[in-house]
Amino acid sequence: MASDKHNYIGGRWVAGGTSRASINPSDISDIVGHFSEATPAQVNDAIAAARDAAAVWGVSPLEARYKALIAIGDEICARSQELGELLSREEGKPRAEGVGEVFRSGQFFQYFAAEALRISGDAVDSTRPGIEVDVRREPVGVVAVISPWNFPLSTACWKIAPALAFGNAVIWKPASATPAIAWQLAEIISRQNLPAGTFNLLMGSGSVVGNALAGSPDIDAVSFTGSYEVGREVATRAAPNFTRIQLELGSKNPLVVMDDADMELAVAHALNGAFFGSGQKCTASSRLIVHRKVHDEFVSKLKAKTEALVVGHALDEGTQIGPVVDEKQLKTALDYVKLAESEGCERVCGGERLTRRTEGYYFAPTLFIRTRNDMRVNREEMFCPISCVIEAGSYEEALQLANDTPYGLTSGIITKSLARANHFRRNSKTGCVMVNLPTAGTDYHVPFGGRKKSSYGPREQGRVAVEFFTVMKTSYVNAGMPE
User: Fold this and answer.
1) How far apart are CA 51 and CA 196, in angstroms?
2) Region of residue 141 (phi > 0: left; psi between -120 and 50: alpha; otherwise: beta)
3) Are 203 and 179 in contact (CB under 8 A)?
4) Which one of 165, 419, 473, 475 has the largest count of C-beta atoms within 10 Å of its C-beta?
5) Residue 87 and residue 60: Cα distance in Å, rounded?
6) DSSP of 124-182
7) In the predicted model, is pLDDT for residue 480 greater than 80?
8) Distance (Å, rounded) from C-alpha 81 to C-alpha 87?
């Protein structure tokens, strides 16, 4: 279609083989736009262009990288209202959250622009007389970025920005559900006069584009965020080529509420972590582990707050919870409600599809009690606004329950006891631990990632991002004696 937004390959906008419509989940009659989907041949074209560009961008002056990334970051921040509305219209999160995500995305580019200037090495003497040793970092080469739909801009930016900052060429495959905001980022980057092929956008399905990138011997590294099952497929395809991989995968995050907790704080943080973003966060609090002494009070107050949440069109004033992203995600939520009830859980509130002024994928935030940690609803990542309460009789039992999961991304505890807080912080088997905070919410200047089935490979964000996007080179020099 002539009106399609195209892929960006080798410095040119290129029509794909097919087209996909992006649908507003708040109003399924609203088509956000039509977007080209790359062909297998175009995947190969992008890889070839990126390989050529990597040789140029990888030796570019540090200040050139800094200026390009600062320009990208500044424009994203300046346009956060406009782009945030587009993001919310396409993905379904409330406008304020969409604007916030866009602004934070710009900050990633600003932060890594500065990191491009800070990259350093070491010059040391050898153990052998007269020999000097130089240790420095070099770009890994061509990086494939495969990003999710739940944070369609920020997750992509915290991968793309460091990749470019450290001299790599990038091929980005965004999620099929959110091509509009992806295209807007690509358009901003396309105006920075980077060497042709330094940045490429390939829209399309994971089965065509994602699999081809993950399995290509000409890709040096793959950074992926998504489900555990798809991440394992990425790893399987990358392994025969010894491609470097960075995987951020599933979660089943616990929030522990102790008997000494500030109850208003506990309810507010549980509400935020479990239901905001329609529960479509890898850091969401899907397991609420509550001390038996405060269980009834906590549930009563959380029920009231949950039922008071305003579920509506993402762009309506006052909306707190938007729709889930698409029909498939809505069906998943409804199926988990049936599963929970079949397992013997008691539904306290929510659990049904909602009707609003426009036809969309609206779902009532849902709370279950009388659940056990061995139930499927407490073992599997649901990725929807459903949370389950698990009773614990002591701190020790709560900690054991929190750690009893195949995942390990985030965890949290609400307590007034410094001793309990510190013990939990040191003994929780997750990559991120929150004390008297929601399990959702992280900063861009420090490492992010999990343990067990939640993550594989070097951490993302902050200064440690350099570990994945660069390789170390050690050079030995015998300068000899001056004549």
Assistant:
1) 11
2) left
3) yes
4) 165
5) 33
6) EE-SSTTEEEEEEEEE--EEEEE--SSSTTHHHHHHHHHHHHTT-EEEEE--TT-HHHH
7) no
8) 10
pLDDT digits (tens, 9 = 90+) for 271-326: 999 999 999 999 999 999 999 999 999 999 999 999 999 999 999 999 999 999 99
Task: Indicate if 241 and 346 belong to the same structural domain.
Answer: no
- The helix (H) or strand (E) run that includes residue 354 is none
Q: Are 270 and 333 contained in the same domain? A: yes
The residue segments making up the domain with residue 185 are: 7-249+454-475
Cα gap 298→142, rounded to integer Å: 50
Contact (CB, 8 A) for 244 and 237: no
Q: What is the DSSP letter of 430?
A: S
DSSP sequence for 82-134: HHHHHHHHHH---HHHHHHHHHHHHHHHHHHHHHHHH---EEEE-SSTTEEEE
- Separation of alpha carbons 360 and 356, rounded Å: 8
Query: Over 38-52, what HEC string results?
Result: CCHHHHHHHHHHHHH
Q: What are residue 389's DSSP bridge partners?
A: 288
Tell me: do 378 and 279 sit in the same domain. yes
Kindly report the CATH number assigned to the domain that includes residue 416.
Answer: 3.40.309.10
Q: Are residues 209 and 291 in the same domain?
A: no
> Chain centroid to CA 112: how far?
17
DSSP secondary-structure letter at 458?
S
Reported as half-sphere exposure (CB side, CA atoms, 13 A), residue 117 has a value of 12
Please work out, in degrees rounded to the nearest 5, the angle formed at the alpha carbon of residue 158 by the alpha carbons of 402 and 146: 85
The answer, as to whether pTM is greater than 0.85, is yes
Are the C-beta atoms of residues 365 and 350 closer than 8 Å to each other? yes
Location of structure tokens 């622009």: 113
Closest of 468, 440, 264, 278 to residue 363, by C-alpha: 278
Query: Is 376 contained in some domain?
Result: yes
Model pLDDT for residues 347-394, shown as the tens digit of each residue: 999 999 999 999 999 999 999 999 999 999 999 999 999 999 999 999
Tokens representing residue 467 in the block: 């570990």
The reply to whether 245 and 258 lie within a common domain is no
R_g over Cα of the chain = 24
Q: Is the pLDDT of residue 2 over 70?
A: no
> Does 291 reside within a domain?
yes
- Separation of alpha carbons 349 and 189, rounded Å: 45
Closest CA to 288 of 279, 297, 298: 298
Catalytic residues: 248, 282
Which residue, among 169, 167, 164, 161, has the nearest Cα to 144 in the 3D structure? Answer: 169
Look up residue 119 and give its amino acid: I
Res 479: pLDDT = 81
Query: With 80 as the cut, is the pLDDT of residue 177 above it?
Result: yes
